[in-house]
Design goal:
98 residues; alpha+beta; five-stranded mixed β-sheet; Ubiquitin-like (UB roll); 5 strands
Length: 98
């Protein structure tokens, strides 16, 4: 099982508390994790990735094992700790301001 942590506003939209636990087939990548999230929680479609291009929304970041993976290819395999479920895949709302 893959563990996914959503930001509070997306947890509210998906009506979940805490981490998501999802079955994701290998190879585990950003794309396969996000596909599984959107399949299980269709109300999140378009909130994390664009509906048409499936690219990450500008104010959303992806982290795994303490590393920012937001600019990595969506098909790059995620670290083994994510694939095994020992570490969560984090979806974070970026903070901007001046």
């Amino acid at each position: 099982m893959i563990r996914v942590v959503l930001p509070p506003h997306l947890r509210t939209l998906a009506r979940v508390d805490g981490e998501l636990e999802l079955e994701v087939k290998a190879p585990v990548s950003q794309r396969s994790v996000l596909d599984a999230v959107e399949a299980r929680y269709p109300m999140l479609r378009g909130t994390i990735r664009d509906h048409v291009t499936l690219l990450r929304r500008p104010m959303v970041r992806f982290f795994a094992c303490g590393e920012d993976l937001s600019h990595e290819s969506p098909d790059t395999p995620l670290p083994d700790a994510i694939a095994s479920g020992s570490e969560p895949f984090l979806i974070i709302g970026a903070i901007a301001g001046g």
